[in-house]
Amino acid sequence: MNDTLSKLKTYLGIPEDKTDFDGVLKLIIDNTELQLKVKLGLFDDFAQVPYELSYIPLQVEVKRFNRLKNEGMTSFTQEGESITFNDNDFDEFASDIDDWKKNHGHGVLMTMDPYRKRGV
């Protein structure tokens, strides 16, 4: 997490020693990674975002930080300036996510025996 926090702060131009935003940045990091894991079908508690998609969380985290205090808005206009937000922060990565799922057997229906003990 510290490496991720450090990369995010660097990307946002926040000095490493400035900790004012660390709490909200950690929350953004946790939520973004969890949401990507759900999109990838990685429901194991110990699952990690695959290396080949590790660029996605950082990009989404930056978007989410920059949108703070504008949550829920789809557009904003002030003095002739207009800003429009995506409905889904992962939309631009949808094809990469779909390709990864196809190449890693996700998207195929899998069943499990509810009576089988874990690790057996």
Q: What is the count of structural domains?
A: 1
The percentage helix is: 40-55%
Number of strands: 2
Mean pLDDT: 84
Distance between termini? 32 Å
What is the number of helices?
A: 4
Content of β-strand? 5-15%
Order of helices and strands: HHHEEH
Main sheet: which strands, in order across?
Answer: 1-2
**Which geometry do the CA atoms define?**
globular
Low-confidence stretches: none
Rg, Å, rounded? 18 Å
Structural class: mainly alpha
Largest sheet: 2 strands, antiparallel
Protein name: Phage head-tail connector protein
Pfam family, one: Phage_connect_1
Attribute tags:
mainly alpha, 120 residues, 2 strands, two-stranded antiparallel sheet, Phage_gp6-like_head-tail
Structure description:
- It comes from Limosilactobacillus vaginalis.
- It holds the Pfam family Phage_connect_1.
- This is Phage head-tail connector protein.
- It is a single chain.
- With 120 residues, the chain is mainly alpha-helical.
- It has one domain.
- It has 4 helices and 2 strands.
- It has a two-stranded antiparallel ribbon with strand order 1-2.
- 9% of the residues are buried.
- The model has no long low-confidence stretch (mean pLDDT 84).
